[in-house]
């Protein structure tokens, strides 16, 4: 009798557990193994039945034309990854203020497209989610190492590099040949030959956009031995006094032949609207203007290009307050895939942050213009600290850079004012 009661009690207990646990799967490990195989076959995707999450809130800052292209690709990726997204485009002039305010209120959404030099700033404030523990940890390793390094801090990766737009220096090939040069100048003597040719033609030598302080900075960094603010500061710690003096003399010689334009200089095959034989612009502007030339021609035969440093780079980050980190990771993975990055380059002419795609795109540019254009967007001597420092210096010393280019101060005063700002 006692044994019968035990059997009944056991049966009641088992029935109760079954009722209270409706998700209990009696099919055992075989069914779970089949489900795991299905997920492994299609990584990064979910069925629509599984997708009950809230929409991802994605914030960017772009021109209307660029945002139209971004929106189309973003929705394409969202559909393929079964993610719903809400896109918002903030005016560039308001972007930093909007981000700071929303971060302080905890209303910053899920995914943000940041300038690379902003990533560490927001990471240190605790506003971002490290990506090391997400499914992005593998694809991050496929990005350009120099861009990836800028988004690293405290041993963690805080963003997935998305794209970058390097600067280039252009020159009319005929002008270069008249000066007796077959390549871009790399020393004071060769720059002096270009200045002499400009004197002979009664023209200024080079055009720079007045509002584009980064363009001015990368051009100054190109002048030997390096005359950008960060290079001037670094020269204090090494015995390069003689080299720096030569740089000051070269910049002094160039000052009367610099023209600052209201807009960023850009040329095309049908419209060379720059009044000087040399100019500095972004690669995307150059390619876009060239391809939209009315006669369908290209400027490859008349213009030579020289790569300058890459300072305009962007990264996708996940906010620390996001409740949709898995969906955010899947969407970012799609936006930084090889296929989408290639489409983005075709539409915007901004180079991919993926190393393999960037190499291919740089090779296409080199072949297009039949020039000695190597993908040297980053200096071999660069390290993450120098890259981050170089991107903040132009803003810090904006006044001094503009004054020396406009001839309001001498080259020597420019160097001294930068040094005195650090060591008064």
Automatic annotation (TrEMBL):
It comes from the Bacteria. InterPro entries: SBP. Residues 1-21 form the signal peptide. It holds the Pfam family SBP_bac_1. Keywords: Signal, Transport. Belongs to the bacterial solute-binding protein 1 family. This is Carbohydrate ABC transporter substrate-binding protein. It comes from Paenibacillus silvae.
């Amino acid at each position: 009798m006692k044994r019968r009661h035990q059997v009944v009690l056991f049966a009641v207990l088992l029935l109760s557990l079954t009722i209270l646990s409706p998700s209990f799967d009696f099919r055992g490990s075989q069914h779970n193994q089949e489900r795991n195989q299905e997920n492994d076959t299609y990584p990064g995707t979910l069925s629509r039945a599984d997708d009950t999450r809230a929409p991802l809130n994605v914030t960017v800052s772009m021109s209307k034309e660029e945002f139209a292209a971004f929106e189309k690709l973003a929705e394409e990726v969202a559909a393929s990854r079964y993610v719903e997204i809400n896109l918002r485009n903030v005016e560039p002039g308001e972007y930093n203020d909007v981000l700071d305010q929303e971060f302080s209120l905890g209303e910053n959404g899920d995914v943000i497209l940041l300038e690379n030099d902003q990533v560490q700033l927001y990471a240190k404030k605790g506003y971002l989610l490290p990506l090391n523990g997400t499914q992005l940890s593998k694809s991050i390793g496929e990005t350009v190492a120099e861009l990836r390094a800028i988004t690293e801090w405290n041993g963690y990766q805080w963003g997935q590099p998305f794209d970058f737009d390097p600067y280039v220096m252009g020159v009319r090939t005929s002008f270069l040949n008249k000066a007796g040069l077959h390549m871009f100048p790399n020393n004071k003597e060769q720059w002096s030959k270009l200045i002499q040719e400009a004197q002979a033609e009664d023209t200024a030598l080079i055009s720079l956009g007045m509002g584009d302080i980064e363009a001015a900075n990368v051009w100054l960094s190109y002048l030997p031995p390096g005359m950008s603010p960060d290079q001037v500061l670094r020269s204090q710690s090494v015995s390069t006094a003689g080299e720096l003096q030569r740089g000051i003399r070269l910049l002094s010689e160039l000052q009367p032949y610099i023209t600052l334009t209201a807009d960023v200089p850009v040329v095309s095959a049908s419209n060379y609207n720059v009044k000087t034989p040399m100019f500095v612009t972004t690669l995307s502007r150059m390619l876009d203007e060239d391809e939209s030339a009315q006669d369908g021609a290209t400027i490859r035969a008349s213009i030579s290009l020289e790569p300058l440093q890459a300072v305009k780079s962007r990264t996708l980050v996940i906010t620390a307050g996001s409740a949709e980190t898995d969906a955010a990771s899947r969407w970012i993975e799609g936006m930084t895939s090889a296929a989408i990055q290639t489409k983005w380059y075709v539409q915007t002419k901004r180079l991919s942050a993926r190393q393999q795609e960037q190499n291919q795109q740089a090779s296409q540019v080199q072949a297009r213009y039949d020039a000695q254009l190597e993908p040297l967007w980053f200096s071999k001597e660069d390290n993450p600290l120098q890259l981050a420092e170089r991107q903040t210096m132009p803003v810090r010393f904006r006044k001094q850079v503009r004054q020396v280019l406009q001839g309001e101060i001498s080259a020597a005063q420019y160097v001294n004012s930068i040094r005195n700002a650090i060591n008064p």
